[in-house]
Amino acid sequence: MATLADSFLADLDELSDNEADVIDEENLDVDQMEEDGDLADIEALNYDDLDNVSKLQKSRRYVEIMQKVEDALEKESDVTNKGVVLEDEPEYQLIVDCNALSVDIENEIVIIHNFIRDKYRLKFPELESLVHHPIDYARVVKKIGNEIDLTLVDLEGLLPSAIIMVVSVTASTTSGKPLPEDVLQKTVEACDRALALDSAKKKVLDFVESRMGYIAPNLSAVVGSAVAAKLMGTAGGLSSLAKMPACNVQLLGAKRKNLAGFSTATSQFHVGYIEQTELFQSTPPSLRMRACRLLAAKSTLAARVDSINGDPVGKTGRSLREEIRKKIEKWQEPPPAKQPKPLPVPDSEPKKKRGGRRLRKMKERYAITDMRKLANRMQFGIPEESSLGDGLGEGYGMLGQAGSGKLRVSVGQSKLAAKVAKKFKEKSYGSSGATSGLTSSLAFTPVQGIELSNPQALANQLGSGTQSTYFSDTGTFSKIKRT
């Protein structure tokens, strides 16, 4: 019977055999990759050589397109008489290629920017967090070089004055060290290549801008030829721009801004190339974000019209621009002044409400009592008593707060109440004066409650006649004899 240790050893032997098989398979795959030439991509990951990182400028496609663009810009051919360019024409194909090339140039600039950051991080590691734009970063790195004292370096014109001050202060306390000569030379060469790509991109955009009048007439009418060319170049063509939602069109060309602790009150975020339009610049600062969203929405509509060649003349774009202008003017109008409310016209007809004694008596009958007035009134700073206590139930207001401690108010009797009391007092609520043992001198009245009355008072007031003699104690029944 095998022990536990023997079973573990057997498992280890099996694992070693499997590992040997895996190593053999990996060696076979490496041999196949070497045979197929797949290791070329791995060698391209060597960031010490700039040519292995940036290959666009040496590509045949880049050289041919740039040559065609320079020739077209030198000729300055009149394209206004051609009308709409068809998709089969070579110039239209060149514009489409330029849009695709501008996107590739942007990606290439980002790759070179990463190369420059990796190399220059040893000298000034804080600079990449202060200067975010790749072209500005390349210009600053080329200008500074290995200089330690930045007071000797003139950065005026490359960066805003606030950022220059922050960069100078940070450079005085940085932990970086000067770069070796070969590393500095590669970094400066990468900066030159990034600046060359940026100038090539500007040429491409200038060419596309000169042809935007008939490529995208409606979009050019809304935002202008220059901004339309930049939007098309960044989006990757007119068809790509037409498929893009307006919220993304608004962000095309937006730069990450670093204010270095300064106020953000005047800074515009989430705004790209649209901020360069004439309508945006003429709008007051408080309304610019609304105008930017409106411009992005109308630009998307104009690009969709141009993508299907819906309006070659550009009438739709001009109408959209006029609509934007009217809306911005409407936003700036002051609110309408508040009109004074006139008094109502006095009535010349007599009122239907009657007056006089009857109305006064009715008002006096239904008037609010002093007790109800006190219950509806509250004294400042003194809690009111309530029927259930702790503020629950019906509140008593100022009742009982006069100092007596009783929830009772002395009310003077009105004339109407006196009249009603006199009327009820005339009625007899007591017994009729019989000699029964149930006779009582107490009477219940609705006004005074229980009162002591004289049952014989009413009998004494009765005169002679049938009422006085019918139940008289001394009188007898009379018998009338008929004759």
TrEMBL record:
Keyword match Cytoplasm: no
Origin superkingdom: Eukaryota
Spans annotated as Disordered: 328-359, 463-483
GO MF terms held by the record: RNA binding
A Pfam family per the record: Nop
Annotated GO CC locations: precatalytic spliceosome; spliceosomal tri-snRNP complex; U4 snRNP; U4/U6 x U5 tri-snRNP complex
Subcellular location: Nucleus
Polar residues compositional bias, start-end: 463-477
Protein keywords: mRNA processing, mRNA splicing, Nucleus, Ribonucleoprotein, RNA-binding, Spliceosome
SMART domains attached to this UniProt entry: NOSIC
GO biological process: mRNA splicing, via spliceosome; spliceosomal tri-snRNP complex assembly
SUPFAM superfamilies: Nop domain (SSF89124)
Domain Nop positions: 215-333
Chief site of localization: nucleus
Pro residues bias (residue ranges): 333-347
PROSITE patterns per the UniProt record, alphabetical: NOP
Family under the similarity heading: Belongs to the PRP31 family.
Protein name: Nop domain-containing protein
Organism: Solanum lycopersicum
Lineage start: Eukaryota, Viridiplantae, Streptophyta, Embryophyta, Tracheophyta
Gene: LOC101261054
